[in-house]
Amino acid sequence: MAELEYDGFTPEEAAVINRLDRSRLPRHLAVIMDGNGRWATQRSLPRVLGHHAGVETVRFMITACHSLGIPYLTLYSFSTENWKRPEAEVQALMALIEGQLRNELVTMDRKGVYVRHLGRREGLPDSLLQTLDDCEAQTRHNTALTLSFAINYSGRAELLDAVKRLARAGHDAASLTEEDITGAMYLPAHPDPDLVIRTAGEMRMSNFMLWEAAYAEFWSTPAFWPEFRAPQLLAALEEYLRRTRKYGGVTS
Ligand code: IPE
Ligand code: IPE
Ligand code: MG
User: Looking at the predicted structure, is the pLDDT value of residue 1 above 80?
Assistant: First the structure.
C-alpha cells in the first residue's frame, strides 16, 4: 500500500505517522510554548529574537496539526501574568502577534483554519483586538482546524469571568452544574484538551486551561519552543497513544 504523505513532515516522519493509530490522536492539542527567552539568551541574542524564532514553530504546528487531522489546536501565547515583563518585551510580543496574524490570515484561511481568541479582551491593544476580530470574522466558516490563540489568558481569570457571568445572569447557586460552568467559559463549544505539551523542560501548568485540562495528558520536552519540530511532536503523540486514560475509573 502506498505510504500517505503529510505536509510539513519528511518521508521518514510520514512513515512513523503511518504506523500510528491515527483514529486515536488527540482531538484537542494545547501547547504551553515556553523557552523563547532561554533559546535567545543561549545564543547571546535579545529575548525578543527568541519570540521571533518561535513564530516558525507556530507555522510548523499549524501545518502539522492540519495535515494530521487534529481538529483543535490551542497555543498559549500571552498569559495575564506576562504583563509583569519589561514593557519593551510586552510591546514587542503584542506587535509580533498582531503582525503575524495579519501576515498569515490569507494562508490560514485558504487552509481552512478557523482562528479564535481565547482570553480577556480588556487590556489588549485596540489594534490587536481589531485584528483578532477580523481573523475570526474572515475564517469563521472554516472547519479543517480550529486554532485558538490564548492571549491575555489565564485559567483563573477565565473561571472568575465565568462565575461573574453566571451571577449576572441570576443563576441559582443551588442548581449550578459543571455543564453551566463549562458553558460560561470563553470558548464553550471546544472539546477539552486531550494532550497538553509544554516545552523548555518545565513541568507546570502556569495557569493554563485549569478547568478544561482537568483530565488532559501532560507531556514535556527539554526542547525550547523555537527548536520544537516534528521529532518532538511525534514523540509526544507516540507517548500519548501509549497512555491509558482512566478518568478515575479502572481498566479491565
Ligand atoms: C515563551 O517563552 C513565550 C511567552 C511566555 C510569551 P518565554 O519568554 O517564557 O521564554 P523563557 O521561559 O524566558 O525562556
Ligand atoms: C507560560 O509561560 C505562559 C505562556 C506560554 C504564554 P511563562 O514563561 O510565562 O510561565 P512561567 O512564568 O515559567 O510559569
Ligand atoms: Mg517562560
Answer: no
Residue 50 CA to ligand 1 centre (angstroms)? 8
pLDDT digits (tens, 9 = 90+) for 180-234: 999 999 999 999 999 999 999 999 999 999 999 999 999 999 999 999 999 999 9
Distance 33 CA to ligand 3 centre (A): 8
Cell 467559559 identifies what position? 185
Query: Which residue's CA is the nearest one to ligand 1's atom 3?
Result: 34
For ligand 2, say whether the CB of 196 is within 6 Å of any of its atoms: no
Identify the structural domains of the chain with CATH numbers, from first to last: 26-156+190-240 (3.40.1180.10)
Active site residue 34: yes
164-172: long-range contacts, CB 8 A cutoff, minimum separation 24: none
Helix (H) or strand (E) holding 182: helix 178-183
Active site residue 207: no
Whether the pTM exceeds 0.90: the reply is yes
